[in-house]
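Minutes, structural biology subgroup

Action item carried over from last meeting: produce the structure token record for EcsC (Pontibacter korlensis). EB confirmed the sequence was re-checked against the source entry. Recorded below for completeness.
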Amino acid sequence: MPTLYEIQAEYELRRWQHEMLRNPSVFNEFARKAQVKLNSYIPEKVHQAITTAIKQMIRGVLFGAGFVSPKPLLEAPLDVREAMVRERIKYYQQAAAAEGGVTGAGGILLGFVDFPLLLGLKLKLLYDIAAFYGYDVKDYRERVYLLHIFELAFSSQEHRRKIYLHIADWETQKLFLPEDINEFDWRSLQQEYRDYIDLAKMAQMIPFIGAPIGAVVNYRLISKLGKTAMNAYRMRWQEQGLLQH
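Output recorded by EB:
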């Protein structure tokens, strides 16, 4: 028999799933086409350089030997786990806001520093959330799942829908993962992520107003990632029969 908390969590999950499956709006389509057109003007060498940079940053955090994996929480009800998740999200929101405020106050030069710092905070948050839901991120397949959560949070509606349909049956999909992480579609990830946050991050580099914008933008980006991760893991629990209907 599901608890009251589990019933509420499943209701929130259904709403999130509906949002993920929604077709792109007219505005989404227009913005997407405009961004694709803009990207077509960027030289291929630049795209390759950005892809390589983001790939190396993400791999450094997710697959680096120096990063300590948190131990998965094995025995705890959903409400206890998610209370811990929310506390951790709040911690990273504050850290990201402080970091965004400092780098935003520094203008363009420190604005470039913000990118890898914020990326590191986001990925470490995902590590912690995975562990709270009981998943061992030492498993290569779990780290690929984290990359998909990242894509869900920071992509266009069209790409988000595609990724959602891919991970909705993750217990099957993970069996067909390539052994080599280089086969992951890094180009799509970096382009979607960059397109998603470009406008806000450019505003962060404007003198005088960059600091408050940087703090607010970073806070909201962490909030978006946290909400996406919670529902992605609720979906995993439901798929594995851990979240009762």
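Discussion: Confidence is low (pLDDT under 50) at residues 104-112.
Next step: EB to file the record with the rest of the batch.
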